[in-house]
Task: structure prediction
Amino acid sequence: MPPLPPEFAQQFVEGGWRRIERVYGARNDLVRKWIAMAGGERELKRLRREYMAGRRKG
Result:
């Protein structure tokens, strides 16, 4: 299994699942493993919501 890319969480927060697909082109099972390694889906989605809310304000 390829290691978790260091910028994976940031890429997910800024662009969601579609960006992950575009940037890494990895299979879904690998992406799900990386999500778990990066803090879990709930945590990444929470960070993404906060990021998106901040973009709307500023």
